[in-house]
Every structure is written in C-alpha cells, then in structure tokens.
Design goal:
It is a single chain. The protein has about 280 residues and is an alpha+beta fold. It is built from seven helices and 16 strands. The protein has two domains: about 110 residues, D-amino Acid Aminotransferase, Chain A, domain 1 (2-Layer Sandwich); about 150 residues, D-amino Acid Aminotransferase, subunit A, domain 2 (D-amino Acid Aminotransferase, Chain A, domain 2). About 25% of the residues lie in helices and about 30% in strands. The strands form three sheets. It has a six-stranded antiparallel beta sheet with strand order 2-1-6-5-3-4. Strands 9-8-7-15-16 form a five-stranded mixed beta sheet, with helices on one face. The longest helix has 16 residues. The two termini are about 25 Å apart. The model has no long low-confidence stretch (mean pLDDT about 95).
Length: about 280
C-alpha cells in the first residue's frame, strides 16, 4: 500500500495521531476510485463529487484537478496491476466537541492493488429496515466517512452482498455502497437522483450504456414493491462495475440475463467514453 501525505509513503511509514480531528469528531469526505487496465477511471467525476462533499463541510480541496490527477498518476507508476484508490480530506483547524473552526484540509491518498475475486455462491440482497437520512437533514450527495444511516444498515448485512435502503417517504434509494437497477420485461428502471441517492459514477455509465444499446431505461421514484415484481435486479459500484443479483430477502429469485449481458459490455463502453479518462 502507498499513502500520499505531501509525499509518497510506504504503509509502515504512515501514521495517524490519536488527536486526529477526523477520528475524534468526524467530518471526513472521501472518494473511492480504481483503474481499468492501469488507466484511472472517471478521475474528474470523482474529483468533482469530492468537491461537492467538501463544500458542504466548508472545505476546499487544496489543489486543482490537474495537480490531483498528477499525484494519482505518480502513485500508479509504482504498481504493475490495477489499483484501488481511496481519497480523504482531513479537516485542520480548531475542531473540538465545542467548535468547528476550519483553517484548511489535508488531502490523503491510499493506494493498493485492486483485489476483485469472484463472488462465492449467490449474490443475495436484503431490504433494510434502516431508512436513508432525509436529504433535508443530510444531503444524499455528501459522501463522508461514518454516515450513521449507512453504518447501521451495513451492520445488518449478514451474508448478503448489500442491503437496499428506502428513503423517508418509502421510496427505494440505494444500497450501502451500490446503486440499484430493476428490470421488468425490456424496461430498466433506476431510482432518480431526487429520490435521495448518491450520483453514482458507475450508475451514470450504465445509463449511458443502456442508451447506446437502445435499451429502454428510466430514472424515477421507485416503489419497493417493484423490487419483488422485477424480472431482474442488478447493482452497480466502482470496484466491480455491474453485479447481477440472484436473490432478494431469501425467497425472491431473479434472472440475470440482461445484467450479465450489460456486465460483459461495460468495460468496452466505458473505454469509448472520452470523459471517463480525463
């Protein structure tokens, strides 16, 4: 593993103080990136999304995208395989239980070999009893370490690949680290951004892939009952791309034909989209 804190460090060289404000009081925006064939995927999209999260907390990324991109590229040179990347913004200032006076933030980058092993057995998901925090309380596009709704839902995951969460009005939202798509007949539906979801970057590319293949796809509010009436369900996230689902709540079984087809076409599609490789 490599860690960037103003310079590249090997894992044993990197330390975290017990007085780290982000550890004691939270408020740490983050993004998770990866490479495909040793090329950084959707770096600008991730940078822009991190900018949004930072702004909610009064932060500003301490460099422009070109500088950020160059740091990532320097780290990638030290790997001979695809890489998983996690970027954090650590708050700096007078931060305590009584005050939040932010002076600046520190960018930290963790890099390690991307490990995507086959999923053993069936891909199972469950509908969580934990609701997503209403966007009026915590914006859905604030991607920060330690979101309580995500942590509480993830704690109930058990042997499921992920748990799917509903919003405050009962609408289907997303998983704890995934976006969700349902298939009925020849029609694909995914919760719209105004449902209260994170604007997933793999999700965005899957929507584009469907359009490129003339597959009917709709973004809208989705009722949870539509999950149980679906022919297929598949998930999307950075590390694996598209993950077709076998089973919901231990009894509802799905076909995986369209999900598997899209999964096979995904990498070819993202390679064709210039904006993914800026």
């Amino acid at each position: 593993m490599l860690v960037w804190k103003g310079k590249w460090l090997e894992k044993p060289e990197a330390t975290l103080s017990i007085d780290e404000p982000g550890l004691l009081y939270g408020g740490v925006p983050y993004e998770t990136l990866r490479t495909y064939q040793h090329r950084l995927f959707a770096g600008k999209y991730h940078y822009d999304r991190l900018t949004v999260s930072a702004k909610y907390l009064g932060m500003e990324i301490p460099m422009n995208y070109e500088q950020f991109h160059q740091i990532i590229l320097e780290g990638l040179k030290q790997f001979d395989s695809d890489v998983s990347i996690r970027v954090l913004l650590l708050p700096r200032g007078k931060i305590s239980a009584f005050s939040y006076q932010l002076d600046f933030c520190e960018l930290v980058v963790y890099m390690d070999q991307l490990k995507v092993s086959p999923i053993p057995g069936k891909v199972k998901v469950k509908l969580s009893k934990i609701r997503k925090i209403d966007p009026a309380a915590t914006p859905a596009d604030l991607k920060a370490v330690g979101r309580t709704d995500i942590l509480l839902a993830k704690a109930t995951k058990g042997d499921a690949y992920d748990v799917l969460m509903l919003g405050s009005k009962g609408q289907l939202c997303e998983g704890t680290f995934t976006n969700v798509f349902i298939v009925k007949g020849n029609h694909v539906v995914t919760p719209s951004l105004d449902s209260g979801i994170l604007p997933g970057i793999t999700r965005k590319n899957v929507i584009g892939l469907c359009h490129s293949l003339s597959i009917n796809i709709e973004e809208r509010w989705v009722e949870p009952s539509e999950l149980y009436g679906a022919d297929e369900v598949f998930l999307t996230h950075t590390s694996r791309g598209i993950v077709p689902v076998d089973e919901l709540d231990g009894w509802k079984m799905f076909s995986k034909s369209l999900g598997e087809f899209l999964s096979q076409r995904f990498e070819e599609y993202i390679n064709s989209v210039e904006e993914n490789w800026i």
